[in-house]
Every structure is written in structure tokens, then in C-alpha cells.
Input
Amino acid sequence: MVLNNDEEFITLDKLKSGGRAVIVEILDTNISIKLIEMGCLPGEKVLVRMTAIHKDPIAIEVSGNLIALRRSEARSIRVKQIEN
Amino acid sequence: MSRKIHIALIGNPNTGKSTLFNALTGLKQKVGNFPGVTIEKSTGFFALEDGTMAELTDLPGSYSLFPKSLDETIPFKVLIDPAHPQRPDLVLFIADASNLKRNLVLLSQLIDLKIPIILALNMIDQAKAKGVQIDIACMEEKLGLPIVPISARKNIGIDKLLHQISLGGKISTQSFTFDGQTEIEDLAVLQNSLGVSTKYNALLHLHHGFTNKVTKPDHKAALDKFRSNNLFDSGTRQRDDLLNRYKLISAILSGCIKEADTSAFKRRQEKIDAILTHKFWGYIIFFAVLFLIFQSLFSLADYPMKAIIACFNWLSERLEQAIPGGALNDLVSNGILPGLSGILVFIPQIAFLSMFIAIMEDTGYLARVAFIMDRTMRRFGLNGKSVVPLISGTACAVPAIMATRNIENKKSRLITILVTPLMSCSARLPVYILLVGLAVPSKTVLGILNLQGLALMGLYVLGFLAAIAAATVFKLIIKSKIKQYFILELPVYRLPNLNTVGITVVNKVKAFLFQAGKIIVAISIILWFLASYGPPGAFKKVEDKYAAMKPENEAQKHAFALQEKTDKLQNSFAGDLGKAIEPIIRPLGYDWKIGIALITSFAAREVFVGTISTLYGLEGEGSDFNQLRANMMKSRDPVTHQKTYSFATIFSLLIFYAFAMQCMSTLAVTYKETGSLKWTLVQLFYMTGAAYIFSLLIYQLLPAGTHLF
Output
């Protein structure tokens, strides 16, 4: 189970526009405080709603909020992709 | 004396906080600070049912009591610092009824501080329309607080809320403090030595008290002891604290709320986003909006601006006749009045600009602008949130710098503050208009484009490019250890609330008048003194010379009076200063007269025009630009007989005014916002230094006798 983790999980920046996933964990503690405050926390479903030029920043829908974040920040969010 | 209670209005951003504030207090508000975009401290008043006066303070929107931006430190300080003047007797907590889970996180932190709270569930009408069902009684019981459902926009439930405020709030007996902690006894000891009322309060001191100067220095030892005894890692603690709160809140809400399918509502929002953040059309729309704003800033604002100038000229003439001649008359009509008109003349532009920004913010569009511009701005060390200050900077750098407070990223915020004054503010406009008129003919090219208009636009573009270039340099110089991030909520689209927009505009104008006004009037009085008095010997000579002249008729008398004024200015302290700096400015192509104008316009750029008018024998500001330009063009160097205002000199002057830091108010606000004399001086010297170097290059490299056409 633990061995499979790397294959099963991706970071949020890899998710395409329109892609859905469930948040597994946030790797960077400092960023996680800000993200959690805004409703982006482990266990929540996330949808990549739109992206700016070069997919950076991206806007995600999570817990009913629309949140913009940079790709570098999305990279610190580990998610499990779900089929649409 | 009647009793007064202090109420703090607290909540997440985008919950309609300002709208509720306006609904409760109307225009009975005072602004305690310079406004940026909803980030100033506003206070309002209203009467309770028993006649008690309530003072309501609107605190900046915040997601939690773990501050990350300057904005968020304000609610933290107000609640945690026992000595804070705004410390509330009651907290009015506002939450978005359709977004309770996240909103209640901050509320749960306030509950743990054991303060009296009333919860207002805002936008209850929208939640109902979406089909969300909220059992108010159930929530009141679980949270242990009085709850009033309202819609601030539609004025629903406001009277019930007022009634509840009269009854008072409640201190909830609930606790959301993470109890998985083993050091609970240590925390009780710390609570005691800090002298605070709750354990959670002590915990907040541990996390953010010291960095925000809320914890007293002599308590540092107690905090350090606790940290080392308990291997206290602030970051993970804050994270776990928040996660625990979500867990407890979810449990409460699942029993009291029935969520609804909101996909129809979301689809409408998605459609608007698809257009406004489109990778091509999004930018076209943004630039079209900017174009529209500038057009109206310079066409619509022009009429009231002209009216204000006309009023002051009339008033100045009247006063000159009404009060007896002498120093007092002169001080009022040549010192204070021009100073005042110099401030009032900017009101139309500031009003229009703040109106547009308030509308853009209220509708939710502003956050989208930050979203689409972030990547571009990042390259220059700025971020998406820098766009608003930079745009505001084209009206006035002072409110623009205030608007940087919601930038969490300290480095980006500092850079934004440092470069914003390079944007062409409205004080540069009169200088540009005068000088461009000298150098560029008023011709029409390509059928519709006015050549002078194009040159003016070129100067605005130059200001923007200079700001970007300076930002790039600062990005390389300023070191930052903290990881920078950009995380921004994109609020749902709404129609703008005209009431909120109107009150915002009134407050911004008021703040500009009282804050900038004081400095500008003080400086104008000093400059008036420098320009009206001189070393006794030389000054007396001028006075004697004109006293001896016998004008033959009224016209000649008038001409003599003007000449005397010109002579006096040349022999005044300001004139001496101009001559003293001539060796420094000669290489830029300026003579000592321009030197006088540079000195008098140090406090505020627009003073240049008034000084130049006096130097070339015109009646001061409101006079005819064409006549002034004709006089300037006649002026020649007494030695070389070259034109004083050659194309190279004018070009060099334009560049100087584009880059130089000649605004006391901006320096004052930079000092206040950065809290650092070092960065204030950096701003003064890098801008003025760049102005000197580039003007020097322009003047030295342009061959003499160059003409544009």
C-alpha cells in the first residue's frame, strides 16, 4: 500500500483543466496554513476550473470556494485523481 | 455623559462586511487612515435601543487569527493586545450563509478567546435561493451564540440585528482548542505569567504575539521556556489547530444544515469566468476597461477640475481686494490658497478612480485581473495583487501605496511600494501639458491622433516601463528568505452595490483631503516664505527700485507690479537657492530659473507650473498656457544667446519630472507603510538619481538645435 503511493498520487499542478481529484496532503507547512484557512484541506474534492496563460496561476474549486494559486504552490498539494 | 460600547465587525473577506457596516452606520463614519481597497480602519456610530451609543469598527477581512498579511494583523492585534485602543466590548461576526464551514473557522477561534459575540449570517437570501437549509435554532444551541440571519444588501434582518446588539452578545461555553496537546499544564502556567484570560490567547501569543509586537518584551523568556520545554513547532501546530477546527465545525454543521445542489449557480459563474479570464479576450477586456477608465479620468474629471481652479482664482482675487495688503494678504492669496487649490484640484480624479476601483472590487472583477496578470507581474518581482496599486498610481501614489497592504508577500509589497511613484500621477499632468505644448506641435496624424496627445501617452508608457524596470532591479537586490506565495480567493460575481461604492468614494476623498492636505498646505507655506522673502540687502534694492518708478497709467502700473513680482522672486531665498544649485543642473540643460522651479516643486510637482508662471511674469496658476509658452520661448541665455528652452532642455526636463521623487506626501506614506527610514531614503535617492542621470544623458547626447519637426 505504502509502496504504491508515488504511482497513485500526483501533485495538483499535473491535473488538467477540468480535472478532479481528492486532496491527500499538503507538503509545505507554511503554505498549508493559508490553503487550509481558505478551505483547501485533505479529504476535500478539488476541481481545476481554469488556468491562466501557461497554466500559471491556476484556479481551483474546493469546499465551494474558487481559489487562485501558482503552479509552484499547486506542486505542494498531493492529490488522488478521480474519474470525471 | 452617555455610555458608549465598542463593537468590532469581523469576518472572512468577501462576506459583505463593508455592506453591513454601511447598512448599520450610514454616513456616520470617520476614516482613521488612508484608504486603499477596503483596508483602512473605518469607524461608524449608531444608537442602541436604550440610547447607548455604539462605536462600530470595520476590521479588515481575515481568514484566521494566524496573520499572514499586514491586513490580517489588524484583527489579531485588536483582539489579542489588551492595550489596544480598539479593543471591543462585543464582536459582531459576519459569515456568508452559503459558505459556513470555512467562515466558522475564524469564529471558532474567537469563541476560544471567550469574548461576547453575535453571529450575523449574511446573504441568507442567496443561500435560500440556492436551496441551502439552515436550522438557526440548532446552530445557536451548538455554537452557544445568538444568531441573526440577514441580507445586508437587501436590508433584510438589519432591525433584528440592531435589536440583538441592544440585548448584547454571548460568551460561548464551547471550546474548539485542540486538546490533543500534552502540555496543557505548561500552557496554564504560561497563561498565568502572560496574564491573559484564556489558554488559546496564550497560544496565539506563542504563534504570532512577538512578531506583531503584542507580547511584552519581558514575557519573551516565558514564551521561550515554553517552546523549548514542549518542542513547540509553530507551523505544524497552527496547521493541526485549523484541521481540528474544521473537523469539529463539520460535525456541528452536518446536524444543522442541509446542503443543496448549487451546480446551476456555478455554471452561470463559470460562463462569466470563461470570458473574463479568457487567455486572449480576458486581456483585451482588461485593457479596454483600463482605456475606458483613463478616458473618463481625463475627459470627465476635466470639467470639475477646471471649475475648481476657476473658483480659486475668483476667491484669490476677491481676497486680495477684501483684506488689506501686506504680508497676511500675500500669505493667504499666494501661499495658502494655491496650496489648497493644489489639493482640491485632484479630488475629481481621485473620486473617479476610487469609484472605478470600488466597482471592480465589488463585482469580483479585480481578483480576476490579479489572476490573469500574476504571471507577467511575477517576472518583475511583483505579483497579481500589484496591479491595483500600479493602476491607482496613475491618479495619486499616496492611496496607491496604501492599497498594497493586502499583498501577503513582503518582498513584492516592498517592491510595489518603491516603484508605484514612477507611474505618471495626476500631479505630473500639468507639468507635462505645459512642456509637451512647448516641444510638440498640435498636429493631427493618421487622421485622428493628436500628436501632443500621443506624446502625453508616451510619457505614461514611459512611467509604466520605468516602474517595471525599477522593479526588476529591486527583485535582484532585495533578498528574502521567506518563501513567497500567491494564493487568492476569486469571489463570486455580483452586481455592484451603488451605496457601498458611493460611501467608499466619499471616504477616500475625505481621507485624501485631511491626510495629504495637511502636509501640502504646510509645505506651500514654507515655499511661499522662501519665494516671498530674500536676503534683506538685495530684496530692499528691488523694493526701492519699484517704489521709485512712477507708472503713467493703469496698464503700466499693472506691468510694473508684475515685473516687481518677477524681480522679487529672482532675488528671494528661493532664487538664491536656484542660483546655488545651478552648477549641478547646468549639465542637464537647466538655468537657475528652472532651478527655482525644481526647488519649489520638491514638495509637489504641480507647483512647477505656478513658479514658472511667476518667473516669466504671468499672474500665477490659472493663467493662459499659450501666453506662458510664448514668454518661455522668448527666453534666451544672457551669455550664449541660445534659447533657454531648446528641444533638448525640454526633453531633459520631461524625463526629470517623469523619474524624480518630488512628492512629500508620497515619502511620508512610504515611511508609514514600510516603517523604515532606509527604504524611504532608497525611494527618494533611486528615483531622483535616475532622473538626474537620464536627464543628463538626454541633454548631453541630443545634438544642439535638435527639433522634433
User: Anything to note?
Assistant: The first strand of chain A starts at residue 9 and ends at 11. Chain A touches chain B through 33 residues (CB under 8 Å). Chain A is about 20% helix and 40% strand. The beta strands of chain A are 9-11, 20-26, 45-51, 58-62, 65-69, 77-82.
